[in-house]
Amino acid sequence: MGTFADARLQKSRGAGTFGSYAGFSTESYGVSIADWDNDGDIDFTAGETFWRNMLLERFYESPASSLWQQVYCLDDGVYDPVYSACPAWADVDRDGDLDCARGAHTQQLGSTRAKFQRNYLYHGGTCADCEPLKRYVNVRPVRAAPDNGPNGWRDNSECEFGAFVELVVRNHPDPNMAHLRRVQFTSTTAGYLNQDEYPPHFGLPGDPDPNDPDEDLRLDVYVDFLARGDEPNAGSGVWRVDWTVNAQLANINLADLYVDCNDPDPETLGRPITVYRDGRVRFKGADPNVAPSDPNLARLYTLGGRLTLPSQGGGALPGLTTGNVFAGVRFNKEPNSPELRIREIIVDGQLDQTTSGCDYNVVVLDVTDPNNPSPVGGLKAYTFSDNRRTFIHVPPQDPNDPDFVLPEGDGSTTRKYEVRVRLTSYRMNTLPDLTGLQTLLGLTVDKGLRTESSSGKNVCTEGMDLGSAATTPVTIRLSPTGN
């Protein structure tokens, strides 16, 4: 039995440090997390108490203390106290909600036993009526097994431990909630025991157009796998399977994932989106035989090595002396370098939502001709107020917009590029490895950038002040395109 020491949630600031978020007067053993009410935020249990996260229900209310509601678990429609719970969560009946298995669910000596509770959130009603009302999707990150099963598929593979999954909703019905990120990873937090075999389960918002049965939310999927020692340059980056590796992971229509009520396919129950490490995917409507020309396109490389971690007691990000601050990094791309795609931008700081001169607060420019900078890509990105580091996926771009692709070298010209961001606060970093990508990708870090102005500069066209060759709050992750 545990003691009644408080359980406490620690909020990640994104930069390797944590801040206290909320405390709960309950025993601190048996912690598990899962979105068991399927509203899109993460609920948790500790000791003998279930706490419901009310972030989305109370999104427009400010007091953080009101965001947690103590509840009991529904057991066949009857509220039942949860004593000494050690819960584990999975959609056992494949109906779209998370069911609960728990051990030691009673306190009385001699009567401790395990118990299974079926979640009836999506129970009852006809298939045709219920499918659009089920607001969820599951993502299964697994390792391809070429020697197992037909066509190289291992149908019952466990999810790969440590995989990091982000689901992006393109057309959120509430614009104010569109910035909220849906991120989960396979780990023991899915339950009291090691349950990385269960796929991350994402609760989703309502249908933006319920009168159109053929349209629903549009989703992008990003999966980061842990680097393996037998992969090329395994220690130098991140292994990410997303739309750049397999285009089928962009703009997925949730309506296409509904179960066919006239001819249900067992493989589509639970709406699994299976993402294989080698870049193949399996889900309803997808072609499982589409694969990247080279699986190593999933490898991301970080310019300059990586941003350093702040000290645990480093305090808040420093404020600014003016209202118009731009920072970034300049890098060189050698004449014989391959075509590269920028896939992520990392900023140690808070992005300014104000724009000036162009519609972006994050831009990448070709400044080989300093008098005629040419846009390579631009984004209007967002930082949450508690975060000190921002990771920005580069999403699929409109065909009429720059696409964040750095062309193959022409054999004679060293091209110069700048990544610029507009900030309200930031922390400067000393990049540890300025030439680490020179041999592999033909990239070297040139200078850090920082400019303060009392008036709004055009971040897309105006010159930036060069700083230290190694100091910047900005870096990028990129990969070869294979072209």
Descriptive notes:
Strands 13, 14, 16, 17, 18, 21, 23, 27, 28 and 33 form a ten-stranded antiparallel beta sheet that branches. Strands 22, 24, 25, 26, 29 and 31 form a six-stranded antiparallel beta sheet that branches. A four-stranded antiparallel beta sheet has the order 3-4-5-6, with no helix packed on it. The protein is built from two helices and 33 strands. It folds into three domains: 7-117, no CATH class; 127-299, no CATH class; 303-480, Jelly Rolls, CATH 2.60.120. By secondary structure, the protein is mostly beta strands. It has helices spanning 127-130, 438-441, and strands at residues 7-12, 18-24, 32-34, 43-46, 49-53, 68-71, 73-75, 78-80, 86-90, 99-103, 115-117, 136-142, 164-169, 182-185, 201-203, 218-225, 237-241, 252-253, 272-276, 281-282, 299-302, 325-333, 340-347, 349-351, 362-366, 374-379, 390-393, 405-406, 415-426, 429-430, 443-452, 471-472, 474-480. The longest helix is centred in the N-terminal third of the chain and has 4 residues, at 127-130. Mean pLDDT is 81; it is low at 74-79, 148-152 and 189-194. A hairpin with a 2-residue loop joins strand 4 (43-46) and strand 5.
Approximate strand percentage = 25-35%
Mean pLDDT comes to 81
| CATH architecture classification name of the largest domain | Sandwich
Assign a percent range to the helix content: under 10%
Main beta-sheet strand count, sense and barrel state: 10 strands, antiparallel
Outline the low-pLDDT stretches: 74-79, 148-152, 189-194
**Overall strand count:** 33
Look up the CATH topology of the largest domain. Jelly Rolls
What is the CATH class of the largest domain? Mainly Beta
Describe the global form: globular
The structural class is mainly beta
Amino- and carboxy-terminal Cα gap = 60 Å
